[in-house]
Batch of 2 targets.
Target 1
Amino acid sequence: MKLKIGITCYPTVGGSGVIATELGKLLAEKGHDIHFITSSMPFRLNRMYHNIFFHQVEANQYSVFQYPPYDIALASKMAEITKREKLDVLHVHYAIPHAVCAILAKQMSGENVKIVTTLHGTDITVLGYDPSLKGAIRFGIEKSDAVTAVSKSLVDQTYELIQPNKSIHTVYNFIDERVYKSVESSHLKEEYGIQDHEKVIIHVSNFRNVKRVPDVVKAFHEISRHIPAKLLLVGDGPEMTIVCKLVSELNIEKQVIFLGKQDNLEELYSISDLMLLLSEKESFGLVALEAMACGVPCIATKVGGIPEVVEEGVNGYLCPLGDIETVATRAIELLTDPKRHQQFSLQSIQTVRKKFHSEQIVSKYERLYYELLQKE
Ligand code: GMT
């Protein structure tokens, strides 16, 4: 049976927006009608699909309000689309505000639409510590018809922090294997001034404090004292000024290439030898999965859901948070041992194929929708 599915996420750059959009695209390819109900067009929605629709939520600024009423505008739009399009499912990404808005929309529409909420991390591991929001997060989770989280670690953390009376299923993230694979992009090396004998280390993030980009720069500094290497820093965000200052203090400006926000990341991964992801919190680490799918092993911190993606000594290495020395030692070991590097690279690709295959994950969501609809 073909379903009508509404999807709400934060559509701008960020792992949760990426997953929501990719899920919508793959569900559309399976024949379902997808209605994105978001504040702007999801950024990865890069081609026409006859069965993907976009309904823009506009939160206007009125002089009587201190803040634009996004949540109410979203709930109203969700209710309108649910009723008009006879949606079967509203799949929202983030407990607050999106699950709470969906619950309100269901009541407003009077329709028996099923609410599926996916937790991505920030809503739990950051906002969950705010006592003023905890009740709303719990409400959003408990009143959803089904709740998923992107790693086992996030499921555990949700129970620990929020204590909801609700079962939460782990549904891992995925990538589109047709996009994330090793591609021929060696011309980029020459264009970026990377010599053949230099190793390429990559970091991709939104440069928030939680990503610990200064640790990446410090580890790279140590690595580059032993082997010729270049660091690709991809993304932008609040920590950028601090990171630039550190690069200049360490006198490694010539070895660090700042690329800002980029699309077509597979081309950058394809010229990279190693990814560093040294975050303080990470419910999953989608960029690690993207890099691994292109055959790039990852050295990452042993936090949150990362150990469910990066397996110590199998496809990468895990290091304690802030332990820059161990990161550098492991990186040097891996980058100077071609045999082990090749083995980790193959294992990275295998892990993505076996554990995080898009077909397997999308079918899991699909089964969940059908199960809920059968419960009537
Ligand atoms: O932290 C980010 O980079 C953004 C954030 C988001 O909400 O988009 O990412 C979270 O969701 C991603 C997709 O599920 C996960 O891969 C990230 O690990 C997670 N970030 C955190 O837990 C800090």
Note: The chain has two domains: 4-174+357-374, 187-355.
Target 2
Amino acid sequence: MPTPEAGSASGREAVRFPVVDPATGETFDEAPDQQPGELDDVVARAQRAWHGWRADPAARTAALRGAADAVETAGDDLARLLTREQGKPLAESYAEIARTAARLRYFADLAPRTRRIDDGRPVHSEVRWRPLGPVAAIVPWNFPLQLAAAKFAPALAAGNTVVLKPSPFTPLATRMLGSVLATALPEDVLTVVTGREPLGARLASHPGIRHVTFTGSVPTGRAVAGAAAASLARVTLELGGNDAALLLDDVDVDRIADRLFWAAFRNCGQVCMAVKRVYVPARLHAEVVEALAQRAKTVAVGPGLDPGTRLGPVNNARQLARVEQVTEQALADGARAAWGGHRLDGPGYFFAPTILTDVLPGSPVVTEEQFGPVLPVLPYRSLDEAVDAANSTGFGLGGSVWGTDLDQAETVADRLECGTAWINHHAELSLAQPFAGVKDSGVGVAGGPWGLYGNLRPFVVHRPQEV
Ligand code: NAD
């Protein structure tokens, strides 16, 4: 039951909502359930803070570098809280915090380039870049801090201010991050708001917001695009994925099995760019299933705070039910679990790491995003058939090709309809690269200089050479 709390931003009695530890399934804390009416004040403050923040690029660089240092200094507290509410192993929380700081540093040093238009006319025409204004950043629960940083670091570096809304499943580490960043940034340059819906919907449609940058599921992304249409704010959407890994005939199974397993199961499969389907030449199918099942059988599953844990719980009860439902449907339709296929006994939202074979190609575990620790392994007879199958879903985030002949692998990778294709790896990302899904996986480009320009507008000054 939500409990009242005095002293909200609006001066009214505020409500709080429970935050659950997925390793136990029990509430361990609460967060403020801010109401949509509070957004007017928050956005007005962000608007006022923008005027000072946009004016001094050198001060921004220094502040963002200071923010990165502050995040690292607070690393231990942030990591424990992140693991507590998200579920991931502590080592992965530390890695997420390192990536959060790295993003701040990368964008702190990135500046847009003024460009002269040289088209032969006797004029001096120059393209400069201007920030947009207050930016709304709405993020999911799978990587609450690093995905938030992927939004606020380029937005702030570009000279915008940010209102950041985490998922109600993971509000606490983001609130702590907001307090840490406040030690390095001017007041109201970055504000964290927490609450249940319709807070996100109202933020996306707020008339004072000039860019809505959203990461989450496809259906919510559609709703966000619709909400932002009210104010014609710019929209960047980083949405779901259902990435295929395509193994070639010359693949060295022993050599790649660990990498392939972790590409699917890191963060308990709750990664937009996880491998969610594996296509294997029919003659290698049994060997690949055995290699993956062996790893699923022996991986240490447990609470993220336990030092030996490699695989934590699913983040929330809704997601666990979804993973269970698509797995049960596949099994009912004739699939076989080479390992797993069920929830684990005991408290918490644990699901056994699962390797499925004999799955129907049209099964939801193949065609939809299940976003959990489940991996169907599908045999193919011809490469064309495999490429067609890999490209057959509505998603297009990432994909990978695995084999020994790297030239052949690259030729196949080039045929994948997605934003990033890897060879013998999956989901290895550089801060400097563009990140953009195709089809239902996204709109707009994040990452690298493209992410910076996504938070800027061109401003052209046109000057004749004579009066
Ligand atoms: P979600 O779409 O349910 O929620 C995402 C965020 O939107 C949360 O903060 C949520 O509170 C908020 N929200 C909910 N309804 C809203 C509305 N009507 N208007 C505005 N905001 C609203 O997603 P989730 O379950 O938190 O996260 C999992 C999804 O995120 C998966 O589909 C995954 O693939 C995707 N994801 C994509 C990327 C990427 O970079 N492409 C990265 C990570 C996760």
Note: The pocket of nicotinamide-adenine-dinucleotide is lined by residues 138-142, 147, 165, 167-168, 197, 200-201, 204, 215-217, 220, 223-224, 227, 238-241, 272, 369, 371, 397, 437, 442 (CB under 6 Å).
